[in-house]
Fold these 4 entries.
Entry 1:
Amino acid sequence: MKIKTDINEKYNEIELHVCNHELSDEVRSISGELHLMYDRSISGMDEKGNRRMLRPVEIFSFYSEGQKVIALSETERFTVQSKLYELEDELEKSHFIRISKSEIINSRKIRELDMSVTGTIRVIMKNGYETYVSRRNVAKLKEKLKAERTVNRA
């Protein structure tokens, strides 16, 4: 894969081009990631009541807390209006994966998986947040991580 940066006054805004001789799974994946990073945003409200548009790439986890859905970023928590299943549907092509009935995490933000407790996986995110994968979702998480590793190697 080649990555080229072209700084020139002729550009009025950032342009990203994905070029290949065929429309492969890798091209679809890269294009999808770029669209998620720059096109899709989710409205969230911080703890002071200020609204902010959140990009999925900055979110570590979406989880339900009572009747609310919380988006967890590096240092802040935001309440979002979307339901967890709606977020899962919208973000299924990206690096988000459901790990329990009440949580979806960004697999790109995982720092460590702790499998020391039999039958369960403790997930430690890059910001220090810790959560657990339900037994029902362990196989799905392993499959997703394996698929991402395969795409990243190509």
Note: Strands lie at 42-45, 51-54, 61-65, 68-72, 77-80, 96-100, 103-106, 110-114, 121-125, 130-133.
Entry 2:
Amino acid sequence: MADIIYKLEENTYMNITNKCPCRCTFCIRSQGNAVGDAENLWFYGNEPSIDEIKAAIDAYDFSDVKTVVFCGYGEPTERLDVLLETTAYLRKVKPDLHIRLNTNGLSDLINSRPTAKEIGEAFDTVSISLNEPDSDKYDEITRNIYPKKAYPALLEFTRECSKYCKNVRMSVVDVIGEENIKKSELIAKSLGAEFICRSFEKGR
């Protein structure tokens, strides 16, 4: 079984799936089998059940953990029910945790229904990967399975999520160039989200 919980720099991460509708050209999982203190983040065969995830949480020392981030080697909203149940369990066993979701923002397409409300209400912070400032560039860099549909969907998800979560942010990776970074910042702010430019070298 792959690592379900791992630490990278100051945060603790939850890895619950390897499924993702994107194959981003810069994706860190193409660089190796793990990051941080994890030994392996690939689930070969079955992905962890909710009981296995809860067992991993029970066995983990959260005494010095302030923030937990759902962001493993896959898109967490691919397992939306498990994601929400795990978040609820974390709040039960460790009420003072700040819980963040790192997502590609395509949950509505993945789950074939609106999901921003239940996601926004479940997390303290929702961080959405904008990646590029227009649809064609987004499709090119993410190589997603929803061409022409993905970009408008993530913008709508962000707009809706901002209604239910106090801390919504959109991010890009610093490999897209200064001009595109500035355009992306304007888009994020227009949707009511904070803007973050992430370092490719640091990985998160």
Note: The longest strand covers residues 167-173.
Entry 3:
Amino acid sequence: MTMIIGITGGIGSGKSTVLNFLEKEYGARILMADNIGHEAFEKNTDTYKRITEHFGKEILNDREEIDHTKLAAIIFINEKEKEYLNNIIHPYVLGRIKSEIENWNKTTRSNNNDIISTSKKSESTNKSSQTNKSYNISEKKHKKQESSNLLIIETALMFETGCNKLCDEVWGVITDTEIRIERLMKDRGYSEEKARSIIRTQLSDEELKEKCNEIIINNSSITETEKQIRELISNKR
């Protein structure tokens, strides 16, 4: 199975749990849009220059780095300024992801050709007495191939940024609102008001169910979540 899967969901839904399992269990290559987006704020980049030229030096700290708290305070109260920033960051992230996909595709095709070539050579040289042994080796190689053939793109803004168009499928992670709020208060120290205000700005569970190809419900134990992921992967083979 060779697939590019988008993973999305609101804050506190537990996307990291899903990503960690896909990486550990299936050897998936993970691309996190937030991490890539942070690169756009780094000093001496073109995006840094565009941001600072527009918002001014008041968003910088003593080391002339962009202070995300200061910048957030501006775009939180000004929708036009938020849109301006997004028009810088989102194209940068999409471009970087496209580049990563291109490199991944090249590597995947190369690995697949090597595996197919090795498999054919093995089939032509093995005798009937080695059939079972050959089958076991083939199975191991097949599993290894599947592990390297899974690319994950994670972002909370999957459809807003157009990242969904880069994916074969998009899987949504949904969790009851009260559970998300409890997690955010416990793990991030958010107030209930802050947690609810952020959740209100994101896609609802109903919208995710409508837009996504598959849904992972992350309300209970990690074991149950992992079971759902295994079933989804199994059904794609």
Note: The longest helix spans residues 79-125.
Entry 4:
Amino acid sequence: MGKVICVGLGPGDPDLMSVKSDRLVRASTHIAYFRKAGYEGQARRIVEGMLRPDAIEYPMEYPVTTEIHFSDPEYNRVMAEFYEVWAEKLAKLAETETVLVLCEGDPFFYGSFMHLYTRLRERRAVEVVPGITGMSGCWTATGEPITWGDDVLTVVTATMGEEELTRRIRDTDALVVMKIGRNLEKLKRCLTAAGRLDTAWLVERGTMTDQKVHRLCEAPAKVPYFSIAVVHGQGRRP
């Protein structure tokens, strides 16, 4: 019998991929990865030039991304069906083959693979290879430590409700904000209300060749999906 292996590819720079992930990517015949319809996909872009010539690719194209809000029951229905279909396809393939699923960052940290994992683990052997998170690559890109001493680090998503997001920002020492995209203006309002806007940084496409780092208050009107905001802790220092 085969199995399903999900490899964390790290924050974007192929050099930040683990040795194990690199070895598996170069050796595997069956490669699956998520992408938006009409796009190459970030995970696939990271491994460009690494796949063996006879590798068979399985692009898993999301049926929706931002067209329907995630709170809409239709979004949940469509996405659940999508994950179930692909879980069945991968389970079938893994009857006889080992199939590699690519995941940017770490698979268990806001990764889409989690939805396949919960459906696959009772059907087939599943292995997960961790990776450096995107947030780690982004706070390193700012050139400042994210936490000191007893600082509390909070990781939130900009898709949260405005009141709750503001509270979380106000109540922490150090902060990471994921999934910004269209929520940039809301995030600015929340940071302003919490008194943290002037100390917030925005990193676009962290560790990649087109990386951009700037103060969040100076950010452009539109930022890519692969953007992360950070507020550094200022706790106990030597």
Note: The first helix runs from residue 19 to 27.
